[in-house]
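Hi support team,

I submitted a single chain yesterday and got back a structure, but I'm not sure I'm reading the token output correctly. Could someone confirm the output below corresponds to the sequence I sent? I've pasted both exactly as they appear in my results page.

Thanks,
R.
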Amino acid sequence: MISELSAFGARFSQPSGTRQLMDDLGQLHQLADQFSNLGGGNPSRIPEVHRWFAAKLAALATTGDLDKVWSAYDDPRGNNAFIQVISRFFAEYFRRSVTPANVICTPGSQASFFMLFNLFGGTTATGVKRKIFLPQSPEYIGYSDLGVESDMLVTQASRVTFTAPHRFKYDIDFEAITLDDRIGAICISRPTNPTGNVVSDEDLARLAALAAAHEIPLIVDCAYGAPFPGIIFTPSELTWRDGMILCFSLSKLGAPGLRTGIVLAQVEVIDVLASMSATMFLSNNSIGACLTQELFESRAVLEFATKAIRPYYEARSRQCLAYCDELFAGLDYFVHESGGAIFLWVWFRNLPISAQMLYARLKQRRVLVIPGHHFAPGQSAPAHVSECIRISYAQTDETLRHALAIIAEEVRAAFAGRSPHSGT
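Hi R., thanks for writing in. Yes, this is the structure output for that exact sequence:
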């Protein structure tokens, strides 16, 4: 029996969109053949990438190198050999000095952001309550509940521009941004989960200048972007400037189960993260580092990104958009311009039921999506977000078309005032 919880315990015992998402994914392990999963962020199994990982794992097991990975603790910053390799990779990619002291590995991106948000957000030693500013909304579902203290995030709703029939795009509303000394850091994902939005190079530079002017860091979530896995379909360039913190992941490279995040930042930031990591995890899982070290050492990771991963998802995006236009014909729908990541963000304008209710109806029909209201961390979001759903296109053509047809049926039923799947 649990007695009265601490404030920390009470905060993390509350229902959340992240928990809902992961519960759905957990169910799929048992019922995968019964559900069409357009909800979770699990990447596709790209044959070329999967074969490489499988062969490398077999080779490591054969040589005995894998034994070294699980038989000893690593440095709290990660496997030393991998840190050396990845720092050289970043130095070459960004064409500037990067040392091993600028890099840390974490148990996945979620762990990276938990540490970073609570490092720069929350109550300071002098009693100032700092917040993390998210300059766009919708934004990543996983940010919402990372703060040990509640009400840590503050968000600026994005501007909406209709770009083509049944298409629209979000942009940062710089004119509405006001920062004060309560803001401890700025954070943005690029490409953005859930919308696939890619903040322009100019807007990213503008955010970096804004952060520098307020002497706070700009945290950029690169989980889907450059330089790896490179799921970005629009011309862009990633730079690493002083004061910027770049966060990467092996998940969308094709290895979500390895739970490996990578943070590139100033030495002082990495040193504090290493202390936090030592306390929370002792040391990190090194299997991801061991498996991928050769990819970064040979720069083959860039070839995977440009020749295998990006073309695969770009083709999936185009196909999914075509299915949407076919199956949603006659509905008042808009899809966000697909600039990257592995999702489409679909807005059913004036939807007469909430996206949460649509999610529940679709789940009854064994189709999983994510309702849009969960993607409003900090609660400042365009009003239409409760009419939106996020769908993953990291599925087969057959699964996509089947699931999207069911979504179309349920949306039409909602507009007609019919009960779910009544057929009348």
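A quick pointer for reading it: The chain has a mean pLDDT of 91. Let us know if anything else looks off.

Best,
Support desk
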